[in-house]
Amino acid sequence: MPETARPAGPSATVRRWLVAFGRFWWDFLIGDTPGLTLGAVLAVAAAAALALDHSARWPAVVALPLVVVLALAASARQGARR
Amino acid sequence: MGGHGIVHTDNLVLVVAVFLACAVEMVEALTIVIAVGVTAGWRRAMAGAAGALVVLAALVAAVGPELTHIPLSALRIVIGGVLLVFGLQWLRKAVLRAAGVLAKHDEDAIYQRNVEELSSGDERAAVLVAFKGTFLEGLEVVIIVLTLGTTGHALELATFAALAAVVVVGAVGALVARQLSGVPENAMKMTVGIMLVSFGTFWSGEGVHVHWPGSDVAIVVLAALYAAVAAGLVRLLRARRVAVGAAGA
After folding, report:
1. ipTM
2. Residue from B6, B15, B29, B30 nearest B161 by CA
3. Is B217 on the interface with A (CB under 8 A)?
């Protein structure tokens, strides 16, 4: 007997929506430039670690934009090579 | 957060950032809607665009108020981080386009491609194309408005800036219709990228307790730094392209 196609249940719909939701955020935040995302995470992490030392304000102030600039330059250079 | 004097520095920068970001996305959405309208009829184009706007409005109503219940430090880290990544992606693309590495985003080419796709005459496809175009570009606007507006405690201001962009680009679009390529999109994208990265740096920094010198004024200094870096990268990549071209000739 041929198998009849059953309509997708609510769990399949939810799963499809979750996959689409995850894919959207993956494309939005990582996409084809994972280096930029990694650079941004590193920049914030470095600033957070340096900001723990309350006696020195400047290392965190300098480190955050510096790592961001390095990440942008590295990613743009890589993009130009492709 | 808080500015000095009657006009708050951060609010002014925020309004400009939201306005430009929304204008860029509006140009892209409008290109698709006009292509659908001209090819498959304005009723279908409007139905698709209006449907997308309703879904986006529901999304804002559902998500917007919830954001105000999250602790500010956590909100600044997450939203600052998202803005930082999003802004870096815009800025990288704008730098590569300005340097001639990537092709400029050509609205005329996109318009032509949409027209060709819609010439098949499928009615539902026309409405879907208008819906998808408006929804996806609008979603980016919603994310920018919610993130910038909530973290800067200026959600209403950000919303008004976005609406102003919608009205201005809509009015210009209605007048010029198919000449959308006249809008200097890459320059706007570069400016928006710089602003998003500046806000992202500032807020994620505040979230992890970085004490910015000059408080909100640091946003302007960061924007100047990133603008200088972007300009330097464009020059560097252009020079490299010329050198590679000369070596290959």
Report:
1. 0.82
2. B15
3. no
